[in-house]
Amino acid sequence: MSANFDDVRFLTVAEVAEMMRVSKMTVYRMVHAGELPAIRFGRSFRVPESAVAEVLRTGIADAG
Prior knowledge:
The protein is of the alpha+beta class. The protein is 44% helix and 17% strand. A three-stranded antiparallel beta sheet has the order 1-3-2.
């Protein structure tokens, strides 16, 4: 099984937080809740830029 990640750009949690204008903790909560896909590298997460764009385009309903 070979995955081609040549065209995928991964962002750090800090970069995602800046793009979405939220705190890093909010990004971590979204990742842990499954609202934002992420890949774990060691002790840090990386989020595909396309996933951030999709969340910003469609939005996420606040359940609380």
